[in-house]
Design brief:
Elements lengths: L1 H8 L8 H31 L6 H7 L3 H28 L4 H11 L8 H27 L7 H19 L6 H11 L3 H17 L5
Amino acid sequence: MAEISMEEKRLCKHKGLCYENALNGLLKAMVQSFAVKSCVHLLMNVIIRKGYRRPIQSLLSFFSFDALKFTAFAGIMNLLYKSTLCIMRSFRNKEDGLNHIIAGAISGISIVVEDKERRETWSLYFAARLVDIVLRGVCRRHGSWDPNKIEVYLFMVMIYFLMWSYGAEKDNLIKSYFGFLNKLVNPSNMERKIMDEWCKVNMLRNPLKI
């Protein structure tokens, strides 16, 4: 009975000890992320780019430094989140949203081991998810908007900002993305001249410092 009552009072409901749970999360996340990375590599490099013609090189690239960074990022993020969550429960002796907020913030440190280009991709993805969650919460609690149309509203705002940047702030766009928008919009010569003038005016008003 004593063991049952202690188990019921325990804030952490996971199986085993806290350090075992954290290490288990680390290993699972690393295995899963490596499997995902390997599948993407298999599709892109072996099949599409015909890497099967160089089997040894293709096999070694599965264990490249880039793959290890992606695997370490996922594993460390999981480890930091679970271990911090258990520490917060023990330290505060309560379970609430604050524990998860702090654990999530600390687990974000794991992004430093990730590839520089993917850092930006992850940051933008999670930022978009954050905005989506916040707007859905506001709509359901305080607004009359249909939360299922949030994606439409967000897309409208993002397209407005992107097209404005394309026309007047092209220096702040990534070259590859600017090229994509060029193909998508396919502006006439006159439109290109007008956009160039807008960019010149903006550069004079607010010159780039870096």
